[in-house]
Write a structure and sequence with these properties.
Strand order of the largest sheet: 3-9-8-5-6
Bound molecules: dinuclear copper ion
Strand content: 25-35%
Shape: elongated
Length: 197
Amino acid sequence: MKTDLFPLLAALTAQKFSGGIFLMAALVVVGLTTYLILTSRTREEKYAAKKRVYGLRARYFIGLSVILLVALVISLRLLPYERYQAKPDETVTVVAMQWTWKMAAGSSDQTPLEFTGSNEISLPAGKNIRFVVASADVNHNFAIYNSQGVLVAQTQAMPGYRNELAYRFPEKGDYMVICLEYCGGPHTIMTGKIHAL
Ligand code: CUA
């Protein structure tokens, strides 16, 4: 995220940001409805009322278009693709299996079953990390949470596929790896740790 451009937006999580947008849109709808109720007269001529509603609708349409255009420009600049295309500083192989994680630095030609790794790994903060994520058995979900319990990155771990996830740890600290795809009884204990140094 471009923290230099949008410090206020960057401080919000995606969930809180979209929640705020939804709240604003809901307020606009409530305001508009209230305005229409307060300004409508029962005996007004049909033609005059129709003209007024059409005028209001046109202004609403233009206003909405401007808001959406601004939101489009802002959100396009927050897209992660540019970061994804940046050359990775480090590659990490991740294999999910019932019910643990195998992680190791570097890319691997081994099959997910052969691959050996640990469910705890240390990685540099502030560097572009490319996680190559596979599964040795069923579908799992490789999700990274920061120390505040906020989901910062995730991708599916699927048998037969190698999914890539680009992430740059913004600050040093301990991050938690949690499986977000139900994968059997002990699914909830399928955790790992990433120490960003
Ligand atoms: Cu692995 Cu849930």
